[in-house]
Amino acid sequence: MRILFCGLVAAAALVAGCASKVVPPIEGVVWQIDNEHTQPRGDWERLGVQRLLVQWTVVDNFAFVPGTDLPAGKNMPDWQRIAGQPWAREVILGLAGRFDERNARASLEELAQLSARIARTPPPVNVTGWYFPVEIDPTWMEAFRLKALLAPLPRPLWISVYDSANVGPEELAQSLVEWLPPDVGVFFQDGVGVHAREAYVARHYANVLARRLGRERVRLIAEAFRPNPGGGFRPATLQELQPQLATYEGFPIYLFEGPRYVGSSLVQGLAAGQKPR
């Protein structure tokens, strides 16, 4: 199986080397709320964006939406303003999460119960889907526990997946086929921003997930950042991001993370590389 996988990757690399650098329409941007980032602003609609994926609305038991009995975050988002933005005509609303992944995985039952409560009182935006923000990767041996916990949550429902162990797309897809409810969709994190893999390899993952789960259940998160030499992350440059996005043509693409990393100058450069709509 490993020889076959490497052969496929090599073939994909050859295709990627000859691929067009035209940026496809971008379906959505991701917004990760914290106390310092509660007022997202951008002109992502120039890229075709009409959907906003909100990472979470409650994190570490602080609420960034009204209608809960939890302490409010330091600053509340202006949901009315967000609802009027062209890049947020449709919102996939994140539910309850934790900043620390290990803590989130240790608190599954609590987060699922809290998420069900949050979903009953959404903010005043056009919610067209829901997102449960406990991320999945092959090193998490108890991910199957999510199956029962996701059942009471509203639909359409999405989760996100990444491959930190590089087990390969077939093994990753097989684990999801075995336990993920068939009415739950997957956002695949490409890993390009953290240099976990090249874009053509991420595209191969997406192809396999689409074949195994159904194309309508798979969307791609394109990491629009790169590591800073001194620590932390910086926005990807146009030269870095443009070929990455071009590789994903044909899949619904979501930029992570819009407010932090995809500013107007980058949008302008990407838009110049798109076909006229």
Your description of this structure?
The strands form three sheets. Strands 1-2-5-7-8-9-10-13 form an eight-stranded parallel barrel. Helix 6 runs parallel beside helix 7. It contains ten helices and 13 strands. The N terminus is likely disordered. The chain has 277 residues and is an alpha/beta fold.
Q: What can be said about this structure in brief?
A:
The chain has 277 residues and is of the alpha/beta class. It has helices spanning 2-18, 79-83, 101-106, 108-119, 146-150, 169-179, 199-213, 238-247, 258-261, 264-272, and strands at 28-31, 51-54, 58-59, 62-63, 90-94, 96-97, 127-131, 157-161, 184-189, 218-223, 225-227, 233-235, 253-256.
What distinguishing features does this structure have?
alpha/beta, disordered N terminus, single chain, 277 residues, 10 helices
Order of helices and strands: HEEEEHEEHHEHEHEHEEEHEHH
Report the structural category. alpha/beta
Give the averaged pLDDT, no decimals: 93
* SS field, number of helical segments: 10
**Which term fits the overall shape?**
globular
Strand portion, in percent?
15-25%
Largest sheet: 8 strands, parallel, barrel
How much helix is in the residues?
25-40%
Query: Total number of β-strand segments?
Result: 13
Low-confidence spans: 1-18
- Report the C-alpha radius of gyration, rounded: 18 Å
- Output the strand order for the largest sheet: 1-2-5-7-8-9-10-13
Compute the separation of the termini in Å.
42 Å
